[in-house]
Design brief:
heterodimer, A: 540 residues, mainly alpha, two-stranded antiparallel sheet, 19 helices, 11 strands, globular, B: 1056 residues, mainly beta, 22-stranded antiparallel beta barrel, five-stranded mixed beta sheet, 14 helices, 55 strands, 47% strand
Chain lengths: 540, 1056
């Protein structure tokens, strides 16, 4: 009796122990607040929220993003734009440090965003793995998703190749066990990129419903591919891709009648590959790059076109501008081609209901390079007009659409590729479409070398400040000639009574550096250190 | 029935005594029937005067006279008397019919009888084999009221502390047991009454003991949480006695220990102009301005103002009240306590209030059942201005006090003034401190019930189950509204009224934040205890299971733009959008679970050979399933040599000599976040505009360590304890060695970036060793009627990084591997440039121009790699120690004579260095107001300016006087040995004088005793930084912080 009482009581105590000696589930609670990757595949809406994150690179490399050195204008690394800041820092100081001194190194790979690109690639690879293994959607839906993802995988690999030449292709969810992988050749990389872009183009719609406007289209991919193939030197592929877009001329795509309107229109037919903004989503290009006189305080007007760019714009009749001609020098900003007025803010230009004053002591200020610290003010005597949203508030965002690929570029890609194939007369058709919009006379030259120079010059003018110039100089292998050991210039304007005195001044305080080795940039040292199969780029 | 009757009596007495407290009137009735007399002597036969003689269970009693004799009336010849006397063990004597008693009292050798609180239990100090230090409430009460953590400095050997702020409610010290043993968080596990809880804000009157478990043996029962040491706090419990009511009231006056003196108005003008002159610039301030600042300005526009005095009062008051009751009988024992603490800040709007209520009740039930029911509630109310006075906080009022011109009046034309070289600047420290508030109320409920059953059939076996539920609820409310100020323009000598820009909202409107966070923790601890003696074998064992669940959640919102600015509620605001136009509300929740099996066996043979085996099998939801459970064993042994027969006659002289040693492995999971083993989704706000809608995006974060595990620390400890008879001399010594592996280090740099983050962001790869020693020396003695004691302790620990993740490109002299944690990195300063020629011939900072940016009086840096230029990446090297001290020591001197007692406590720290310039957590280095003249174009400490390098003062302590800010070419802002100072210090941490009044007049009034005390803390500080007016515990990044406080406290304690 007594024993059994003890037993019973012991039993109770022991059961309490056992009850509380919980199962594994006790230590495996559902995560709170944070969600795991399995959420992506629960609904199609979730999946699309994931896909949404792929799109940003479309604009991030252009002026409405700030991909390299923390600034919007890649052209600041080329001959056509000059940043004003002369001490290190994000407002262009790092750009000047890069072009004026030898700062590029495996530990400081400027003009590359290696980790970012591979991080995005990793997300896409995870996505494609999940799509294959977890997604339960219709094949058609899955293909549409795959096409979007693979375009961006190709896009990001191209961004890497553009900077470094041949790079490591990551086309599967490589983890710690796959850490060691060698670089592919540039040619192999372009094969891979071509495969990705072709899959996307072949599986995407030509256009989407209104509710899905802004998603990737077939034409957008072909347009982008026509550019990529120029970098690859695969001229026929470039021509073919461009023609996939050109065949939709008048239907899906069309040049804006007026060059000035392109970056004032939100859903222009000139846009082939676009990134749209709206709602709270916007960019602040107009805030930092508008002329200093727009705002009484704060940092503003941080970069301007060089005189080299400004002088490139033709006279309205297509002839060259020349300071040595007295009539040109007396009123240098009169009677120029329309793209000049659409792209450049010069002394005397009308802007937001006032007159631009870039003369010494003027509202928009001229300050020689190195004189000011960070508050802005032009060192070249010019500001950029193109792409600046005049109507956006200076303390808010602009929702102007970014056109990563414009129809005009596709035409120029087409012309360039045809000329390289020796089909100059066919090239003239596309080239002259672009010139006609700029109200310039048609080109009739068919000599390959002469036409090559004309097309390249047209590209510089048509696509100014859109982030092409540096990369074009690199692929043409003309960057050393154009940039190394050179100094760029500006115009110092002095007001005397009612007239102005124009003086050409240097806007660099030392010679620029662009070495042969810059054509293929180093990969980060941490890649070399941790991946023995990866060899550093030659010359680094 | 018996029980009921007792209860009624108890209630009766309690109420009556309470009444006494309130009225301070005597209504006590004596039940005197029998008269008892006697004499009290000590063990040497000397008479003892003033011994307290009490009838057990009552307040009734007397004290011995000058012959050591007493006479007292007792209700019955069976009663018992209790004798107590300072420095002697309390003695209880049953009359057993005697009417004359010869009493011999023995001196207290508490060190031997001391009971030590260990994990999940207690042990007698003599039989402890692990390394444990403990202090009792008596010692705690020698310090002024306030945060307990800051009072532990120097009290417990092996405890390292650093108190960087004196702000009420935030004046706790960061404390570490045996220094640092990991690269990440080394914090100790805090346990109050057996449950994981913080203790800093307990009422010190409620605390019985605080002990720290230092080695693996003591900590093994805490398993994965044991590596950083464990701090155990036990609160007081009832004792079998008549209810003893104690009221303690304290009032204290606080002031800054040290604070640097800044330039006054005229000197600022003079020196700023001088600095401009040295920069080759024209003076900005006119002679007439100087004279107005010096002699006054009839227009009232200029005045010599000390802005620090405008925000800091010369002193502030605190009060602390506590009333508690301790009593009980065989059935029920109780300790009830209520406390209130109020601390006013030295800066307006900053204060702290705390309410503590506690009830610890023990009930003995029938059949060997026992119940412990503990309830504690606490409210902590913290108030501050909208802008915090944390040394890294922007718009910090203390920092801003150095930013305004010191030659402006505090107000002009009824409005606070603002003046700065940058006209858009609207800084005024008083305004920034007054534009709003940031208040929080923390409500805490801590409750535990333990049901224990001592099995009647098996001697020494007890089952127990303890359940605890703690809940924290915090409400915080913060308000900021811009105010008008009068902005001074030097050029025109005019004021303009402008609205302060608070940079709180994009449009500078009112903002109100209301946030709640709540948290609960549920703990269940079933346990089995066994303790028995078989002949010479003492055996005890513990088996326990513990599971703990904690869940928390946060909710909050910010509303902006108020029309009715007096109603601070969310729904009175016009908008809840943040600066990006998104709703400014948040809400999230968390969950965390632990479980563990604890076992411990103690065996002692003949009280001589001691052995302890302890282990915990521990599981935690922080880890992936395959790594969820870990085993943490430890063993220790002790040998009481003094109990050996061969010790023979020595035994009379040496009460205790014990050797002990321990070894074991403990864990640390503090550096692992929740669900760190899962690839998490992150959310990006508005990302893309599709159709006519904007969409967010989500993405996977990557960098997951799917095999993440805890850090493991192997700890070895050897020590000995020596106690001479009667405590005339005592010594304890410990040496330890800790080796920690699997420390989480960043994994990113171990994998190629081309994996895009599909690799562990952290890996368990670091290793650190830490060794040190602790020494305690005690001396207790009596000379004539003066009892005194001396207790000195010292703790030293030195760590070394054995393995961490460092770039192979780091030069060897910058590698942390092989060095101590927290060593300071910077340039080696070799002096100041004397002239331009020297600059031209010396390597200088590569990004600065010689002569135009590097000038005479600037610091010469050593070109370590000899490449002809100075660059931090190549020329930084190690300069000195961390500011976290390596050596801490304390010395307590106590004495009592009759009713007078005094104690003095010195506390010091050594082997630490401090940068006057700051190195931020992210490694960024910046000058501070202590190193760059006119930092941020503001005012500077006098010591810096007056001993800056000028052509007339080439032998200066500080670099060139200048107004040029660092980013535009001042070469002196970098971390360098020029700005490093030894930060060893010694403080007179506490001093107390107490007087206990015991006389029969009070006793007939029902008052057992009154004690008056004066206590001071931080009374003196000796340190090399005194000459600058900087407290040695000041934070290194001194953007303005709440200074450490010196306290003078008067206390009264009345016992009924």
């Amino acid at each position: 009796m007594k024993i059994s009482k003890i037993n019973k009581q012991l039993l109770i105590v022991i059961s309490i122990f056992l009850l509380s000696a919980c199962s594994e589930d006790y230590l495996n609670p559902e995560p709170r607040t944070v969600y795991t990757e399995t959420e992506i595949w629960k609904t199609m809406e979730n999946t699309y929220l994931y896909i949404n994150g792929f799109y940003k690179p479309i604009y991030e490399y252009g002026p409405y993003g700030s991909k390299y050195a923390g600034v919007a204008l890649n052209d600041g690394f080329s001959d056509i734009v000059k940043y004003n800041q002369h001490v290190m820092g994000a407002n262009g100081g790092d750009v000047n440090k890069t072009i004026l001194s030898s700062v590029i190194s495996p530990n400081n790979p400027v003009l590359s965003d290696y980790s970012y690109e591979y991080n995005r690639i990793r997300r896409i690879n995870e996505f494609l793995f999940g799509l294959e293994n977890y997604a339960t959607y219709d094949e058609a839906d899955k293909t549409l998703m795959e096409a979007q993802a693979r375009f961006f995988r190709g896009f990001l690999h191209f961004m890497l190749v553009r900077s470094h030449g041949g790079i490591i292709i990551r086309d599967y969810i490589d983890g710690p066990n796959e850490a060691f992988k060698a670089r592919s050749t540039e040619n192999e990389c372009y094969d891979f990129i071509t495969k990705e872009l072709n899959f996307a183009a072949n599986n995407l719609p030509g256009e989407w419903d209104k509710a899905d406007l802004g998603r990737l289209t077939r034409g957008g991919v072909w347009g982008y591919k026509s550019r990529v193939m120029l970098y690859a030197g695969r001229w026929q592929d470039a021509v073919d891709a461009a023609e996939e877009v050109i065949k939709e001329e008048g239907n899906l795509y069309q040049l804006e009648s007026d060059y000035d309107k392109i970056f004032k229109t939100k859903d222009s037919k000139e846009g082939v590959l676009s990134y749209r903004f709206g709602g709270t989503l916007g960019h602040g290009f107009h805030k930092l790059y508008c002329p200093k006189g727009d705002k009484s305080e704060g940092v503003i007007g941080i970069a301007g076109p060089t005189l080299e760019m400004v002088d490139s714009y033709r006279m309205a009749d297509g002839t060259e501008f020349d300071w040595n001609k007295p009539e040109h020098a007396a009123s240098p900003y009169e009677n120029r081609e329309p793209r000049f007025y659409a792209s450049i803010l010069y002394n005397g230009a009308q802007w937001k209901g006032r007159t631009i004053e870039t003369f010494v002591g003027g509202k928009d200020g001229f300050e020689p390079y190195g004189a000011q610290q960070s508050s802005g003010g032009t060192t070249t005597g010019y500001y950029i007009r193109k792409m600046i949203d005049e109507d956006a508030p200076l303390d808010g965002v602009s929702s102007q659409t970014w056109y990563e690929v414009r129809y005009a570029e596709v035409l120029l890609n087409h012309a360039e590729a045809l000329n390289e194939l020796g089909r100059g007369s066919e090239a003239l058709v596309s080239l002259n479409k672009v010139r006609q919009r700029a109200k310039l006379p048609n080109i009739t030259v068919t000599d390959q070398e002469a036409l090559r120079q004309i097309i390249r010059e047209e590209r510089k003018l048509e696509l100014a400040f859109e982030g092409h110039r540096l990369w074009d100089l690199r692929r043409w292998k003309t960057a050393v000639d154009v940039l190394d050991g050179k100094r760029m210039h500006g115009t110092k304007i002095t007001k005397e009574g009612e007239s102005f005195i124009y003086e050409t001044v240097e806007c660099d305080d030392q010679n620029r550096i662009f070495k042969e080795s810059y054509y293929k940039l180093p990969v980060p040292q941490s890649e070399i250190d941790n991946n023995p199969l990866c060899k550093q780029t030659p010359l680094w | 029935m018996e029980c009921n009757k007792r209860k009624i009596m108890w209630n009766d007495r309690f109420l009556r005594n309470l009444f006494l407290v309130l009225l301070l009137l005597s209504t006590n009735v004596a039940f005197a029937q029998v008269n008892v007399r006697g004499k009290v002597v000590d063990s040497t036969g000397e008479t003892l005067i003033g011994v307290n003689v009490l009838l057990k269970g009552t307040h009734q009693g007397t004290i011995t006279d000058s012959n050591g004799e007493f006479s007292v009336s007792v209700p019955s010849p069976d009663a018992s008397l209790v004798f107590s006397y300072v420095g002697y063990s309390e003695l209880e004597v049953a009359l057993e019919g005697r009417s004359y008693l010869n009493i011999t009292m023995h001196q207290d050798t508490e060190e031997l009888d001391e009971v030590i609180v260990v994990g999940y239990g207690t042990q007698k100090k003599v039989s402890v084999t692990g390394s444990v230090s403990q202090i009792e409430s008596k010692e705690l009460m020698q310090a002024p009221s306030g945060n307990i953590t800051s009072q532990l400095a120097g009290k417990l050997p092996g405890l390292t502390s650093l108190q960087t702020s004196g702000q009420p409610g935030y004046d706790g010290a960061s404390i570490r047991v045996r220094g640092l043993s990991t690269l990440g968080n080394s914090a100790a596990t805090l346990i109050v009454d057996g449950v994981q809880r913080s203790f800093a804000q307990l009422d010190p009157n409620d605390i019985d003991k605080i002990s720290i478990l230092k080695d693996a043996s003591a900590g093994a029962v805490y398993g994965v949480q044991g590596a950083g040491g464990v701090i155990l706090v036990t609160t007081k419990r009832g004792t079998i006695q008549a209810p003893k009511i104690t009221y303690t009231g304290k009032v204290s006056y606080n002031q800054n220990t040290l604070f640097p003196e800044f330039l006054d108005g005229p000197d600022f003008i003079k020196w700023y102009n001088k600095a401009l002159e040295m920069d080759g610039k024209e003076p900005i301030f006119t002679q007439s301005l100087y004279e107005k600042a010096l002699n006054g300005d009839p227009e009232g526009k200029i005045q010599n103002t000390n802005w620090f005095d405008e925000i800091m009062k010369p002193g502030s008051f605190s009060t602390h009240h506590n009333i508690n009751v301790n009593g009980g009988n065989e059935s029920v024992k109780y300790f009830l306590s209520a406390g209130y603490l109020s601390q006013d800040g030295i800066i307006d709007n900053f204060d702290f209030q705390r309410y503590n209520v506690r009830s610890n009740v023990d009930v003995n039930l029938n059949h060997g059942f026992r119940l412990e029911l503990d309830m504690a509630a606490r409210q902590e109310i913290r108030k501050s201005g909208y802008f915090s006075v944390s040394n890294q906080a922007w718009n910090n009022p203390v920092m801003l006090a150095s930013k305004v011109f010191p030659f402006l009046p505090p107000t002009y034309d009824g409005l606070p003034t603002v003046g700065h070289f940058n006209k858009n600047n609207t800084f005024n420290p008083v305004v920034y401190n007054n534009v709003g508030y940031n208040n929080s109320v923390l409500n805490i409920l801590q409750s535990s019930a333990k049901f224990a059953w001592e099995l009647p059939w098996v001697k020494g076996l007890e089952f127990g189950i303890k359940m605890s539920y703690d809940k924290d609820y915090t409400t915080s409310r913060a308000w900021a509204a811009p105010e008008m100020v009068n902005s001074y323009d030097i050029a025109t000598n005019t004021y303009t009224e402008v609205l302060t820009n608070l940079s709180v909202t994009a449009t500078n409107v009112e903002a109100f934040q209301h946030a709640n966070s709540q948290f609960y923790r549920r703990t269940l601890q079933p346990s089995v205890n066994y303790e028995n003696t078989f002949g010479k074998h003492d055996i005890s064992g513990l088996f326990l299971f513990e599971e703990a669940l904690q869940e928390g959640e946060n909710l909050g919102a910010v509303a902006v733009d108020y029309d009715v600015t007096t109603l601070h509620e969310l729904d009175m605001g016009n908008d809840i959008k943040d600066n990006n136009g998104r709703p400014n509300v948040w809400g999230n929740s968390s969950i965390f679970r632990r479980a563990g099996f604890v076992g411990r066996i103690n065996y002692a043979f003949d009280n001589k050979y001691l052995l302890e085996l302890a282990a915990r099998y521990d599981g935690s939801s922080r880890f992936p399933p395959q790594n969820r459970w870990g085993f943490f064993p430890a063993a220790s042994a002790g040998w009481r040599i003094s109990e050996e027969p061969f010790f023979g006659d020595l035994k009379d002289k040496i009460a205790n000599l014990k050797l002990r040693a321990s070894a074991g492995v403990l864990g640390n999971d503090l550096n692992v976040g929740q669900f760190a083993y899962l690839n998490m989704m992150r959310r990006n706000p508005a990302t893309i505009y599709i159709g006519d809608k904007e969409y967010i995006s989500v993405y996977t974060a990557g960098e997951v360590n799917r095999d993440i595990t805890w850090e493991k620390t192997a700890t070895y400890n050897v020590g000995f304890e020596l106690m001479l008879d009667k405590g005339i001399f005592g010594m304890e010594f410990d040496y330890f060695y800790k080796h920690t592996r699997d420390i989480l280090i960043s994994g990113g740099s171990l994998f190629p970036p081309s994996l895009g983050g599909n690799y562990p962001g952290t890996v368990n790869g670091g290793e650190v060793e830490n060794q040190g020693l602790e020494l305690v020396l005690t001396h207790n003695n009596k000379i004539g009627e003066v009892f005194y004691n001396i207790k000195g302790n010292l703790g030293w620990s030195r760590n070394k990084i054995l393995k961490m993740n460092e770039s192979p490109n780091t030069p060897d002299y910058q590698k942390r591997t092989g060095r101590k944690m927290g060593e300071k990195l910077g340039f080696i300063a070799e002096g100041l440039y004397e002239d331009e020629e020297q600059i031209m011939n010396t390597p200088t900072l590569s990004h600065l121009q010689k002569i135009s940016q590097i000038r005479p009086g600037d610091i010469i840096y050593k070109d370590l790699n000899g490449d002809g230029k100075i660059e931090s990446a190549q020329d930084y090297t190690f300069l000195g120690n961390s500011n976290f001290p390596e050596l801490m020591y304390g010395l307590n001197l106590g004495a009592s004579w009759k009713n007078l007692d005094a104690s003095i406590f010195f506390q010091g720290a050594a082997i630490r260095d401090m940068f006057l310039s700051g190195v931020y957590g992210n490694g960024a280095v910046d000058a501070t107001v202590y190193t760059r003249p006119f930092h941020g174009n503001g005012n500077s400490p006098r010591f810096l300016i007056e001993d800056s390098w000028t052509p007339d003062n080439k032998d200066a302590e500080f670099a060139r006087l200048t107004t040029v800010a660092a980013e535009v070419g001042n070469c002196n802002g970098w971390a360098s040995s020029w700005w490093m100072r030894n930060a060893d210090y010694l403080r007179l941490k506490n001093a107390q004088i107490g007087y206990t009044i015991k006389n029969s007049y009070f006793q007939t009034a029902g008052i057992d005793g009154i004690r008056l005390s004066f206590t001071g803390s931080n009374l003196f500080t000796w340190s090399g930084l005194n000459k600058y007016g900087i407290d040695p515990e000041a934070p290194e990044i001194s953007n303005g912080y709440y200074p450490q406080q010196r306290t003078y406290e008067f206390g009264v304690s009345v016992t009924f």
